[in-house]
Structure formats: structure tokens, C-alpha cells
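Subject: sequence -> C-alpha cells, single chain

Hey, anyone have a minute? Need the predicted structure for the following. Not urgent.
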Amino acid sequence: MPLPTSSKMRISLLKKDEIIDFVEFNITGDAENYIRCDDESYYLQTNVFNIFAGCFERSHHLFDYISPTMYNARRFIPLRNELLVNLEQLLVIKNVSQFQQYLSQVFLGKDLLEVLKQIDSEYEKHWKGYIRRLIQVNRHIMRLIDQCIDEERVLWIIPY
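Reply:
Had a minute. Here:
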């Protein structure tokens, strides 16, 4: 059974024409500049990004929730390691209680729970789909980091 969809929230990395309240994952620039909202960028709704924000914060002491933060070769491995730990936590969730507990312990995770309740009155029945999507996002961000490493790019995290 497909999960309810809403223009208010999608749990996936998106392209710029699919999103309003977002954080941009931009790989178009260098250490000084980037092309804002480039076609190559990915976007994540803020409520979903908040689930991963701790990974970005712990891996880069200059991470900022309100201004652009650059990740380069020196920061990629710590970020990837944080995302790997997060992925391992997501993969062991086996029931709705663990799902709710995980989100409740993550910075602003309770906000995501509230959004899920608003867009899906039966989200507790659909929790497996939501956890699957969070796992996909986690893996997608890790692949984006791998791409940056392989192609010697920088990654700008830009909140809007």
C-alpha cells in the first residue's frame, strides 16, 4: 500500500522544482563560491533534514543551521562516518515504538512526528514505509558524499 503523499512533505532528496521549505545539497562550487539552486543540486525538506542535522553538526564544528556550510575532502569522512552510525540506528528499528523513540531522541525529530500525524492519520500503520524512506535518504546522502570524493568536489549545505 503506498504511503499518503502530501505537497507539505516528501521524505526523499528532491530537485528544485519539487520543494518549498528546504536545505540544498550543492556540489557545483569550490571552496569560495557555488551556483545557488543549481540543476545539479539536491534538496531535502527542512523537517526531514533535521533528522540528519546532527550528523552534519558533529562532523563539522562550523556547521550552521542558518547559513551555508562547506564540506570538503577533510570533512567528508567524518560526515560519512556519522551518517553510517545514523544508518545503523535506522536499520535496527523493528516496530513503531522504536521508530517513535528514535525520532523523539533526534534534534527536532518530534516535529517530523507531528507532520507525519498531520499528513497521515494512520502513520503508525505506515511507519515501515517512512523508515524505509529515511534509510533511502541516508544512503543517498552517503552516495552524494562518495561522488564528491570521487570527483574531488566540495559539498555546500545551504538552508533556506
